[in-house]
Design a protein that fits this description.
alpha/beta, 9% strand, five-stranded mixed β-sheet
Length: 341
């Protein structure tokens, strides 16, 4: 042990005479919370005339447990009160041969996507007497040892697409919407009325705080129609919109993205295949499908459909009670929240 200066008189001499003890003292870790609790029980036991029953009741343990702690403390001090390994003294050893393990490994390397049910058939054809569960245990052991080849899970039928966006970004984890307009989710869905062969594109924008919805329907889903719907949202929303969240659909790129940037709106785009992150607007899509489109007498034109959809929007925001808002309408909730502020 090397000592650079002394804190107390004789420290250098003590360090030279007791190098092993000094080294152990440096390496000794402070007791854990559980060891401190057990130590408190030991001290309480000693301070109360070594009354085991009283101490056990005070700390909520059995007398046998308390006596185990006392014995371990007498033998090893505070270190004896630390948690010990719960590993069984006798661990189950593999009952299969090394030859069988190598056969399983060879077959798995040849067929990386096959499981135990298929591999056991091939192993029996090779003359091995083995069960499905044993093949499963062998595979688990090989995986734990890092010897099992992992299959390539990339979908060969799905080409890679560039996710580079000039303005849109992922929503930061610390971005939490607190007031209406902090985050409006937008989504589109295909709509076909009755037995018509023509499909329309329905757009829904939902504010995640007030549950206020703005609805629109168009003949096609393009970045231009999405931009037009954004204009409708900003015109009809009774609050200032600060951030938009969309999925990676092509209609939310190009002109739509440029419009968000021009208007100074934050634009968040979801990761691929994660509609659950847009859960509010996904639920809104279902609501308007069930309560409007499925009950609709198909109109003769797109303009007539838009007029009916505006009536649905008005009903939803001002008449329909919303369970998430305590059975208030979005309009009532906005008025109440304005009074509270």
């Amino acid at each position: 042990m090397q000592t650079y200066g002394s804190i107390i008189p004789g420290a250098a001499t003590l360090a030279r005479l007791l190098p092993q003890a000094a080294s152990e003292a440096r390496q000794q870790r402070p007791p854990t919370r559980e060891a401190k609790r057990r130590l408190a029980a030991v001290h309480w036991y000693e301070a109360h005339d070594q009354h085991a029953s009283l101490t056990a009741r005070h700390f909520g343990v059995s007398r046998s447990t308390l006596h185990v702690w006392l014995k371990r403390y007498r033998e090893a001090g505070v270190r004896g009160l630390e948690d010990r390994s719960r590993r069984p003294r006798r661990v189950r050893q593999p009952t299969w041969s090394g030859e069988l393990e190598q056969a399983v490994l060879a077959l798995r390397e040849e067929h990386p996507r096959w499981g135990k049910d298929k591999l056991v058939v091939l192993l029996r054809h090779q003359g091995h007497t083995v069960s499905v569960s044993m093949v499963g245990r062998i595979l688990t052991r090989l995986k734990r040892q890092g010897r099992l080849p992992l299959p390539n899970l990339r979908d060969p039928w799905m080409g890679s697409r560039s996710q580079i966006r000039p303005y849109a970004v992922r929503k930061p984890r610390d971005y939490v919407p607190r007031v209406p307009g902090d985050l409006v989710q937008i989504d589109s869905a295909d709509v076909r009325l009755d037995s018509s062969e023509h499909w329309y594109k329905h757009f829904t924008a939902r504010d995640v705080v007030s549950r206020w919805d703005v609805l629109g329907v168009y003949g096609r889903a393009t970045a231009i129609t999405a931009r037009d719907f954004l204009e409708e949202l900003l015109a009809r929303a009774p609050f200032k919109v600060r951030a938009i969240q969309v999925d990676g659909g092509s209609e939310f790129k190009a002109e739509f993205e440029a419009a968000c940037q021009e208007k100074g709106l934050l634009l968040f785009v979801l990761p691929p295949r994660s509609p659950k992150l847009n859960g509010c607007v996904e639920r809104a899509q279902r609501t308007h499908k069930e309560e409007f489109y499925q009950l609709l007498d198909p109109p003769d034109s797109l303009e007539a459909l838009r007029r009916l959809l505006l009536a649905q929007e008005l009903c939803y925001n001002t008449v329909r009670p919303h369970q998430a808002l305590g059975q208030l309408t979005p309009q009532q909730w906005l008025l109440a929240s304005g009074e509270r502020r």
